[in-house]
Amino acid sequence: MENKYITVAQLTRYIKYKIDNDVNLEEVYLKGEISNFKAHSRGHFYFTLKDEESRIAAIMFASSAKNVKFMPQDGMKVLVKGKISVYPANGTYQIYVNEMLEDGLGNLYIAFEQLKKRLGEEGLFNPEHKKPIPKIPERIGVVTAPTGAAIRDITSTIKRRWPYAKVYLFPALVQGDGAKESITKKIKQADDYNLDVLIVGRGGGSIEDLWAFNEEMVARAIYNAKTPIISAVGHEVDFTIADFVSDMRAPTPTGAAEMSVPNKSDVERLLMQINARLIKDMNSYVEIRKNKLSEIMNHHIFKDPMNMVEIKEEKFSNLLDKLKYNITSLYKSRETEYIKLKESIIFKKPLSILDNDKNNFNLIVTKLDTLSPLKTIKRGYSITKKDGKVLTSVKGVNKKDKLEVEVSDGNINVEVI
What we know:
Helix 4 packs parallel to helix 8 (253-260) and helix 5 (179-191) packs parallel to helix 6. Strands 1-2-3-5-4 form a 5-stranded mixed barrel. Strands 7-6-8-9-10 form a 5-stranded parallel sheet. With 417 residues, it is an alpha/beta fold. It has helices spanning 8-20, 62-65, 106-122, 149-161, 179-191, 216-224, 241-245, 253-260, 264-297, 300-303, 305-343, 345-348, 350-371, 373-378, and strands spanning 28-39, 45-50, 55-60, 77-87, 92-102, 139-144, 166-171, 197-202, 229-233, 248-249, 383-386, 389-390, 402-407, 410-415. Strand 9 (229-233), helix 7 (241-245) and strand 10 (248-249) form a beta-alpha-beta unit. Helices cover 46% and strands 21% of the residues.
C-alpha cells in the first residue's frame, strides 16, 4: 500500500515537467496590474501580476530587466511576455518575464521607435538639413489649435519680447481624428506665406494626445518645408518625431516663442553699447585727424611756402645751366673732330692712300710667292706622298708601297723596291 504514495517533491517535479513541456506555455503574453513590486539589488524584478479575478507570481531577471525603458511600480498596468514554469521550493507556478511594456502605451511606443529609426536612416534628422532660425524675424507663423494655452503663451511672449514681429495663426486640429491631416495641410499652407519662421506645436498631454506629431506625414511636411520650423510639442520631457525633424526643438510653446525672437531689452542694451562704442571710435578718429591736421599746418611748407618754390627754382636753374654746358661741350667736341677729319689726308690726297695700300698688297703677294711650295718645286725639288700624306721620313715606308712624287709639271707614281 505504501508504494502508492509519492513525496511532495516528486509531485512538484512531475507538475513542473508537464508545464515545462507544454508548448502553449513556452511563450505567453499577459496583461495585468503590478502589485508587490520589488527591485532586487542584483537587478532582478519580483512582482505579482493581477487582474480583477486572479493573480500570478512573476520574476524578471536582470538580463531582461535592464532593457525595460521605465521603472515599474505598484498599480501600473503592463504587457508582459514570458514562460510559465514551477518554482520547486514552494510548488507554485509563475511567469518568467523577458519583455515588459506599459499597457496602452506599448504599441504606441513601438510604433514611435520604428518610425524614428526608419526616418533617421533616411536622413531626415541629419544636421546638414537643418535651416538656421533668423535672428530678427518680422513674420512668424504658428500652426496650433486656435484656442488653448499654447497660442496664448506664444503670442503674449512674442509681443512682450519683440512687439515689432507680426504673428500669423494657422489654426489646426492637434489631437484626435483628422489631426495629422490638419497639421500637414496647415504646414504646407504656411510654407507658401513668405514667413521668416514657423512654430508648430501644442500644449502638454498624454502620449495619445500628442500622437499626431508622431505621424509620418507630419514629419515629411516639416522636412520638405522651405520655412525654418521650430517644434513646440508638450512639455520639456515630451519628445515627438516632429522634434527630431524640425530645424529647432523647443521644450514648450513658450520656449519656442522665446527662441523665435530676440528680447527687446537685450537688443536695446546691445544697441546702446554699439552706439557708445561708435561715439568713442568717432571721437578718437576725429582727435587723430585733428592732430594730423595740426601737424600738417605746422609744417614748414605751410609756414614758408615760398621757400619751397625758391628751392625748386634754384634746382631748376642749376639743371638748366648744366644742360647748356653739356650742349656746348658736345658741340665743341664734335666741331674738333670735324676739323681733324677735314684736315686728314683722306680728304686732301685720297689717291695717295690707295697707292699706299696697293704697294702694301704687292709686297704681301711677293712674300707669299716666295714662301710658296710651288716655287721650291720649280727649283728642282719634289714632294713625296703616301696615301695622300706628305712623307717627311723613311720611317713608315715599306717595300711594295705605292708612292706619289709631285714635281713642277706633274705627278710620278712609283713603287718601293
